[in-house]
Write a structure and sequence with these properties.
The chain is mainly α. 65% of the residues lie in helices and 4% in strands. It contains four helices and two strands; from the N terminus they run αααββα.
Length: 165
């Protein structure tokens, strides 16, 4: 652990992945097995698990860290590419970087505008927050569209890939 800065990216990412998996396993085991059947104070028909706050805090912190790392990586990649080579091995990497970044941002804006803001009922309570209703639809629609694009790209790449002799 002393020379973690010298580790290859694969080793560092795998260690990070294992730590995250371990933390999630511990938190969710505590959630399910410690105080899960506590009755909710306002309505005895619902459960109020003891470690609900831990799950929420873990999820929020992971989202915030992920967004922060994503922003840092995009800024770093754009700065490093800045005035550097725009073609590597005859591949227009600069255009690809800018296209993907701008495309995802435009997709997020578009799905936010298209998303529904109609009220929903959760556990008998009306949820009416306009921004969060639109934002949740944005994340759902954007992830579905990007997963569909990824599946299509994999299928296209698998069917069109031929080795030259």
């Amino acid at each position: 652990m002393k020379n973690w800065k010298k580790w290859p990216a694969e080793k560092l990412s795998m260690r990070t992945f294992y730590v995250l998996i371990a933390v999630y396993i511990v938190v969710f085991m505590m959630y399910w097995f410690v105080g899960y059947t506590r009755p909710f104070a306002d309505n005895q028909n619902f459960n109020a698990p003891l470690f609900t706050d831990a799950v929420i805090i873990l999820s929020y912190s992971l989202i915030i860290i992920g967004i922060g790392i994503t922003i840092w990586a995009v800024i770093r990649a754009l700065r490093m590419r800045g005035k550097g080579e725009s073609y590597i091995n005859n591949i227009p990497v600069k255009k690809i970087n800018y296209s993907v970044t701008i495309g995802v941002l435009l997709l997020c804006v578009l799905t936010f505008l298209v998303g529904s803001s109609s009220n929903i009922v959760i556990n008998g309570t009306h949820f009416t927050n306009y921004f969060w209703l639109k934002a949740s639809d944005m994340f759902i629609y954007t992830s579905l569209i990007l997963m569909t694009i990824a599946i299509i790209a994999v299928i296209y790449g698998a069917t069109k890939y031929t080795r030259r002799k």
